[in-house]
Amino acid sequence: MSAKPRLTVLGTGYLGATHAICMAVLGYEVLGIDTDAAKIAALSDGRVPFYEPGLPEMLRKALDSGRLRFSTDIAEAGGFGDVHFICVGTPQAADSPAADLRYVDQVVSSLAPHLTRPCLVVGKSTVPVGTAARLTSMLQSSAPAGTAVELAWNPEFLREGFAVEDTMRPDRLVFGVSSPWALSVLESAFAPLLEASVPVVVTDLPTAELVKVAANSFLATKISFINAMAEVCETTGADVQQLAASLSYDPRIGGRFLRPGLGFGGGCLPKDIRAFIHRADELGVGQAVSFLREVDAINQRRRQRTVDLIRAQAGGSLAGVTVCALGAAFKPDSDDIRDAPALDVARLLVAEGAIVRVYDPQAMDNARRAYPDLHYADSVAEAATGAQVVALLTEWDQFRELDPEWLGDYVAVRNIVDGRHALDPTTWRQASWDYRALGRAA
Ligand SMILES: NC(=O)c1ccc[n+]([C@@H]2O[C@H](COP(=O)([O-])OP(=O)(O)OC[C@H]3O[C@@H](n4cnc5c(N)ncnc54)[C@H](O)[C@@H]3O)[C@@H](O)[C@H]2O)c1
């Protein structure tokens, strides 16, 4: 294997496309593989098939360098790669809280027959602890190169919206390895980041698998903690924003992820904590993480509570009420609508008879595809026209910067529920809006 290994990236979704593109920009020869021919055609053509700030420019740079190409043919990966990164999805199973590992299993079983020389397969997908051990046996029993094929785990911590920055300058790298050889290969595969002094934790496979779910469990817990405080504030008349601000001055607590509101969603946190609970139950240590059930429940309750606020503003019933829903993506600077709280709220409103008009700066196509029954508007103004309640559900800058007078000219009634604590209540109230937010007095 050369000093600069050739890399394959298996699965070119949010994680894999970013990883493939950034590694090529960092100087590696990279082959990206996906079973989705449309995705591969778009990437080959210089188009990123999802919204991620800065990534289209990086893709152009990587393609121009001649170091990056894409294919749907996994046989090519075997011949090409010294290091194969597994970046396929691990969604929640349809019928249980467990992770659905079918894509991971498929990619490993389709890659293995093409591994005829020593190489390292590196898992980046988020998986239940113990998966790497199982995949190692799968790989070594079906790869022609046998035990010369090793498996390592390198969990990924990138955040959508900051994916390029997080890949080019990660907070840390975690290398889960079973041999010094695997470690040396990973060091070659991440040499530019190690030279830039990115901290590295070298550990075993189960620890590397656990790091990711532990990190997401902690973050989810922090969000649900402040949202639990919001629930208490709602019945006591206390103000959760001031509570959060006061807590955040304590450096042991810190202010990040301590923002109350509609809670977390997306393709990671919700399914990762559920899969963790499930896996811990399987392992007989369910009690250790049973608090995550409550973390999930608090988070889900925020969605219904947002609907309650909107209903209250509408006068007690949502039947026939026009609601302007600002936001569909699970967070700003992303078009990802997986388990998006905004769309859940929109659907709950519709279920109670509201007429909901959704607008999002980037996630409209995904939302339309997933929920064709909702109404969509092409602009904030169109969504707001004649609305009896405006609900801010994803905190895009475009919504944070809205002028209350400007918006007030479009709506029928100046009612706003700020599901993300993104607006200044004083400014909006001064413009005669009835401003409400979770955990704050009306
Ligand atoms: N999205 C994030 O911000 C993020 C961050 C950290 C970790 N993760 C983890 O990374 C993994 C991938 O997440 P994602 O958001 O990129 O998912 P995604 O759904 O956007 O992408 C997965 C890709 O894998 C492809 N795929 C499925 N089976 C395949 C196969 N057999 N061969 C080749 N390609 C195949 C799919 O077509 C899809 O393009 C998950 O485990 C997730 O939990 C995601």
Automatic annotation (TrEMBL):
Gene Ontology biological process terms in this record: polysaccharide biosynthetic process; UDP-glucuronate biosynthetic process
Which pathway does this chain act in?
A: Nucleotide-sugar biosynthesis; UDP-alpha-D-glucuronate biosynthesis; UDP-alpha-D-glucuronate from UDP-alpha-D-glucose: step 1/1
Report which reactions are catalysed by this protein: UDP-alpha-D-glucose + 2 NAD(+) + H2O = UDP-alpha-D-glucuronate + 2 NADH + 3 H(+)
Any Pfam family hit: UDPG_MGDP_dh_N
Q: What InterPro entries does the record tag this protein with?
A: 6-PGluconate_DH-like_C_sf (IPR008927), NAD(P)-bd_dom_sf (IPR036291), UDP-Glc/GDP-Man (IPR017476), UDP-Glc/GDP-Man_DH_C (IPR014027), UDP-Glc/GDP-Man_DH_C_sf (IPR036220), UDP-Glc/GDP-Man_DH_dimer (IPR014026), UDP-Glc/GDP-Man_DH_N (IPR001732), UDPglc_DH_bac (IPR028357)
Q: Which UniProt keywords apply?
A: NAD, Oxidoreductase
Q: What class of enzyme is it?
A: oxidoreductase
Protein residues bound to substrate: 157-160, 212, 257-261, 265, 331
Q: Which residues bind NAD(+)?
A: 34, 39, 90, 126, 160, 271, 338
Catalytic residues per the record?
268
Q: Any idea which GO molecular function terms this record carries?
A: NAD binding; UDP-glucose 6-dehydrogenase activity
Locate the UDP-glucose/GDP-mannose dehydrogenase C-terminal domain: which residues? Answer: 324-425
Q: What is its EC number?
A: 1.1.1.22
Query: What family does this belong to?
Result: Belongs to the UDP-glucose/GDP-mannose dehydrogenase family.
What this chain does, per the entry, is described as: Catalyzes the conversion of UDP-glucose into UDP-glucuronate, one of the precursors of teichuronic acid.
Q: What is this protein called?
A: UDP-glucose 6-dehydrogenase
